[in-house]
Design goal:
about 35% strand, alpha+beta, about 475 residues
């Protein structure tokens, strides 16, 4: 009897303790936070998410930070809490936005140096940095690379991999990864084979700079030849003045030197044109690089999402007010405007190419009757130029002025006709990517999250504007805005 009573007491105590733990966890869970991170943590351009497609299946790969609350206290109007931080690799379905997989990467206390962030996609791998260079299979979430794996593949790097993000460079264009080792040597890591090769550290001269240097040297050498010819002419003139040459001898010498120098003038003109063209090409390439770099930055605010002018099918398009239209010159460039109360309309005109410059020609006319508050053409993250859809554009605009303005997204045709228009519920797109007939958007509408933390993932159908959405904070699908 005593044993049975003791057993019951033990059972009751265990159940009570278990219940208390569940109650405590339930209370603490109210202070837990989940968010997608990944972009903007370092000076290098990064993404908030990566998209992969294979065998008809598409997934969105994200880096998730989960802060589990272990205790909390309240004082005044603030809450102090202790947390355990864990990082996960997560995938969501490209068609439905539903969560399809999650894999623990590391505990926060195991990471000695921050930031933790996504780097890019290469060789069908999702590359990220979490205290070390890592790569995952986006479909199975199998770890394919980390410091130990890379060192095993490359004995020369044994003990030389630094745990700081700044020593790992991911090139979004070439999809190559450059590693600076502990001894300062530089290696290029093949993202497919994971084999590292010593980088050509001397190969840093820009091709345009090299060409300009060659042309400048050729010009300088030609000037020396020209100077020598003129020196001979001056010497002939001196000898003629001193009666050391006859008039005919001097005339023959001057004619010969003239025939030698005349082609040089044409060569100088040609070299000047070549140098000007190379420099122009260099400026264009630098502008393209900077444009892409700026577009790929995450969290650039609403103004960083758009531009107000573009060309398509031999025509100029602009989202301007009437006042801005009056100021527009004839030379085209991609122009961004920042007037928060601007009610922009779509204008269009013919553009022609003149001396390597696009010139706005003919009458500027309105296309459609719609007005877009702070409206602009949505930029492509890949090109840094406006997104071009079949026969039209995507316009981002606001529903109201001020800090509470929400981004509206409208698809239009080139004649200004609206195909659809939606409210995204976001004040800005933290990151976005065009993929086929879908626009994937990451943003924040949860005031409890910090800068750089994203809770909302939206997949927008570009054919009809339909939205499916997933909330990282609640870890649930929710209706699109």
């Amino acid at each position: 009897m005593a044993k049975r009573l003791a057993f019951r007491i033990v059972i009751i105590t265990v159940l009570a303790a278990t219940g208390f733990i569940f109650l405590l966890r339930s209370c603490l869970a109210k202070f837990d936070e989940r968010a997608a991170i990944g972009g903007g943590g370092s000076s290098q351009a990064a993404s908030q998410f990566l998209v992969f497609e294979k065998d008809g299946k598409g997934v969105i790969f994200s880096l998730v930070q989960y802060d589990r609350t272990t205790s909390y206290s309240r004082k005044g109007g603030s809450t102090n809490k202790s947390i355990v931080r864990t990082f996960y690799a997560q995938t969501n379905d490209l068609a439905t936005a539903a969560k399809t997989g999650s894999q623990k990467i590391k505990k926060g206390h195991d990471i000695k140096a921050y930031p933790v962030e996504l780097m890019g996609a290469a060789s069908d791998k999702a590359w990220l940095f979490a205290g070390e260079l890592m790569a995952y299979d986006p479909f199975t979430l199998t770890r394919l690379a980390d410091a130990a794996i890379i060192e095993e593949k490359n004995p020369v790097l044994k003990g030389k991999l630094i745990n700081e993000r700044r020593y790992y460079e991911f090139d979004n264009d070439s999809k190559q990864i450059r590693i600076t080792a502990a001894d300062g040597s530089i290696y290029d890591l093949n993202p497919n084979t994971l084999v590292a090769s010593a980088a050509d550290e001397g190969k840093t001269v820009n091709a345009a700079d090299k060409k300009i240097k060659e042309l400048d040297k050729y010009t300088a050498d030609l000037r020396e030849v020209q100077k020598a010819a003129y020196d001979r002419l001056r010497e002939a003139n001196r000898k003629y003045q001193e009666k050391l040459l006859s008039a005919k001898q001097y005339s023959d010498s001057a004619d010969a030197i003239g025939k030698e120098v005349k082609p040089m003038d044409r060569q100088f003109d040609s070299l000047e044109v070549l140098i000007r063209d190379v420099k122009s090409q260099q400026r264009t390439e630098e502008q393209t690089i900077n444009r892409k770099k700026n577009a790929r930055r995450t969290g650039g605010g609403f103004t960083g999402m758009k531009t107000n002018t573009d060309t398509l099918y031999g025509r100029w398009y602009a989202l301007f007010t009437n006042e801005e239209l009056e100021k527009a010159g004839e030379h085209f460039d991609h122009q961004a405007l920042y007037n928060e109360s601007a009610r922009n309309k779509l204008f269009t005109a013919v553009v022609t190419l003149k001396e390597n410059n696009w010139i706005i020609a003919g009458e500027k006319t309105t296309a459609g009757e719609a007005v877009y508050l702070q409206g602009g053409f949505l930029l492509s993250k890949e090109t840094g130029l406006p997104v071009h859809l079949q026969n039209g554009f995507l316009i981002v605009h606001k529903d109201r002025i001020g800090n509470d303005g929400v981004v509206q997204l409208t698809r239009i045709t080139t004649d200004g006709k609206q195909m659809w228009s939606i409210s995204t519920g976001l004040k800005e797109f933290y990151d976005w990517q065009l993929r086929g007939d879908k626009l994937i958007v990451a943003g924040t509408d949860n005031k409890d999250l910090s800068s750089g933390e994203v809770n909302l993932l939206q997949v927008i159908n570009l054919q009809n504007g339909a939205v499916v959405a997933y909330d990282f904070f609640t870890d649930k699908i929710r209706a699109g805005k």
